[in-house]
Amino acid sequence: MRGLRPLQRSQGRGRQDAGLTTTPRSLIAATGSYLPERVVTNDDLAAFLDTSDAWIRDRTGIGARHVAADDEVTSDLAAAASRRALEAAGVSAASLDMIVTATVTPDSPMPACAVRLQHKLGAGKVPAFDVSAACAGFLFGLTIADQFIRAGGARRVLVVGVELLSRIIDWSDRTTAVLFGDGAGAVLVERAEPGDPRGIEACRIHSDGSLAAALEIPAGGSAEPATERGLAARRNKVHMLGQDVFRAAVRGMTDVGQEVVAAAGLTLNDVDRFVPHQANLRILQALAERWAVPLERFVLVLDETGNTSSASIPIALDRGLSDGRLCRGQRVLMSALGAGVSYGGVLARL
Ligand code: ACO
Predict the structure, then answer these.
(1) Is residue 244 lining ligand 1, measured as CB closer than 6 Å?
(2) Domain co-membership, 204 together with 328
(3) Same structural domain for residues 181 and 231?
(4) By residue range, what is the domain housing residue 175?
């Protein structure tokens, strides 16, 4: 957990310089994260699945994952991470202008997880809504926050990536059960003061619905046939075409990363650290190779968290700022691809 001193709030929009008005920037002012207490190791999984620590480490780079307690719900994880971010910044929930929660595992299909979070934080009647873009959801949320702040519609936005994936995994399916973990990461996005060199420099988000079937929960939505409604079948759990997702992740994250640095008029050589979505170490190795950057410049938490979907980037940001792998002032490239497929990239000076 790491924060900056709270930014002064000033009136007025934009920056007035010799008659010129510049659009205000947004910046990541503070971060927080939460991982449930219970740790499930690969050996724990091998006790009831036909798998092994060696297979999981070799194919994914994952050593363990955190799994929420039975009485924890998604908004609890989100609230714990959010309180840490608010505390790090020294600001109250009442000062928020908006809450965006990125999740595909809300407490219930309706209402949004974000309104439950708003209530738990005591954040007042600010708009609170969910973004459903799976592993790319946090970057979609960050982009929305950035756009609102640039447009003058908000000054302080809480963006949370949170997943309780252990509840939507088929624990008897070794091809998916070993991959995922639970967790939450929160960032406070604020309007930067004029002249502050930090801030979000570019955002790009995309979706390609032609790949929707590569990673989905087939049951439970409005497309479910009437005869199957209410059946607690395996269709109600995550289904994945692993190699299709692998290829799409490498391609999408490579392209959007290059696109977003180009949008800022920069190249990958201008980036200090890479904080990608963390699904699988082999995807990240392929990404580093295609970008021609050393993997050592990636901030990784995958080994101990598994794939936490929308939470993976904000958890890595928070961990990196806490343990010194990330420093304020560094330029960081975040990129992600997830179910949809949806993918995005955000370039920011921390
Ligand atoms: N333990 C042991 N063996 C396993 C396991 C397991 N947990 N899972 C699969 N296998 C077996 C398969 O059954 C298969 O056996 P077979 O040869 O007898 O048929 C063998 O291992 C190879 O299976 P593949 O699916 O070909 O293995 P692959 O090398 O593709 O690795 C994996 C599978 C790890 C899922 C890989 O495809 C992958 O990482 N895909 C990306 C998917 C992903 O990360 N999704 C997360 C959500 S999306 C995102 O976050 C980007």
Answers:
(1) no
(2) yes
(3) no
(4) 2-191
